[in-house]
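TEACHING EXERCISE
Course module: macromolecular assemblies
Task: Read the component lines below, then compare them to the predicted structure of the full complex.
Student: A.B.
Group: 4
Components provided:
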Amino acid sequence: MPIRLSLVEDDHLIREAFTDLLNNTEDFLVVSSYSNCEEYLRNLTTDRPDVVLMDLELPRMGGVEGIERTKKLRPQTQLIVVTVYENDELVFKALCAGAGGYLTKNMPPSRLIEAIREIRQGGAPMSTNIARMVVASFQKNHHSPLTARETEVLERIAQGKSYTTIADELFVDKETIRTHIKNIYWKLEVHSKAEAIEKARKERLI
Amino acid sequence: MPIRLSLVEDDHLIREAFTDLLNNTEDFLVVSSYSNCEEYLRNLTTDRPDVVLMDLELPRMGGVEGIERTKKLRPQTQLIVVTVYENDELVFKALCAGAGGYLTKNMPPSRLIEAIREIRQGGAPMSTNIARMVVASFQKNHHSPLTARETEVLERIAQGKSYTTIADELFVDKETIRTHIKNIYWKLEVHSKAEAIEKARKERLI
DNA sequence: TCATAATCCCCTATTTTGGGTGAACTAAAC
DNA sequence: GTTTAGTTCACCCAAAATAGGGGATTATGA
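Instructor-supplied answer key:
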């Protein structure tokens, strides 16, 4: 049984080049290719692709929404994003939506074939820079204005814990936590939990 | 200028095998190798490695703490974890601590060399399954007991927002949000924000 | 020594939260 | 075509949490 592939890509030159490349690869079968998400989604359940190569910059419905709908309609479908965009926000949106891989278009054609085999074997093919972005997203900012203790407190605030709970966990008085919070708010220039959490997440302080 | 390498690995057979392999690779220079983190850290600033290959199961101080301390002592140091463990928690702890790559020991030796070049070129070398785990960590559980609306509410709760704020954002009454929260608590079998957030994060509902 | 960090205390006022109970309307599913 | 699930809103209560203001004591390290 060959690996069934669908393509969603609005540039028809690229679409045809990919189709040619993949159809000439052992075990691969391009079952369909579309220039837009709407048409692709209408045929998804009849095409039954194993892997979909999806562009993100598409007319009307964007690729991220296309990924989300794919996963709702047919969860076993595996998606690899193939795009020129390396924008942080877009990458994470695509991954959150359900993309299992993310390639940028400056790759050699062989990487595409490799990626399809990789995702089928339980991997998550990513371009170099994307992998770095993804791993970096786990790591904290080393130039935080907050002290270690303040960071510890803010992390617990972000877990929805009350001052009392945090105080108990850190074996200090509730008043101490209050002081830390006041200092955190002052340093981050915010006036509420929600603002502090948002700013801290954005700047990777927690 | 060769790429300076340090090894931290308690099995001396593996340590020597890696040293031999890497010293016989163009542009690579193993400047030091240790069987424990303590000794490695004492010599870090004089060894000045570009890349450290770090095992996680080490006597006394564990690898994760070793990574953290490395980043504090000498932030420009790049670390690749080389271990047999594929445990979720350990992988994410290592990445959060500052690891820039994560390889499991069932790889061919050539992958090690490739990984070192990859991390130097701005990548994040990972074994197949690790990459999958990392990407999967961005994605939600598809079998959530919560409705779309409830998920939307819980996400905002996890951002530290008050019922009033959420109500405004979703253009509904505060009482509606309260009802959603009651239903969320009932479904998740919890009785507070903190518990709900914890459970939801653990089960990837948000 | 001076600055920073971490600890604790008091006061006030408002908001938030959790729990209980009930009900109207919609849309999908059976 | 009735039932179910989801979303919406209402009103009750009491305890808890929050934000802002003020001030204080230690300890550490530059």
